[in-house]
Amino acid sequence: MRRRLHGVDADGRLLVGADCAAAIWLRTPGDAWLGRLAGLPVVRSLARFSYDRFADVLYAWNRRKGHW
Fold first, then answer.
1. Can you tell me the mean pLDDT for 1-30?
2. What confidence score (pLDDT) does residue 3 get?
3. For residue 23, is it within any domain?
4. The pTM is what?
5. Quick check: is 45 in a domain?
6. DSSP state of 29
7. What whole-number distance in Å separates Cα of residue 37 and Cα of residue 51?
8. Integer angstrom CA distances of residue 42 from 13, 14, 27, 31, 50
């Protein structure tokens, strides 16, 4: 749970990682453009890959610092 952002949409679907971030951006005033961009097919694949790598690095850094 600490490595990836998790959320549930209005239909009860579980959203994880970049998909969850995109859904949040779509509902955030001023950031909806970012959610639409992250939802494009080519960008979505890149966003998922990038998010996962960043989340791994951030998790490892926090573990080393003793935060988790």
1. 93
2. 85
3. yes
4. 0.82
5. yes
6. T
7. 14
8. 22, 22, 21, 19, 13
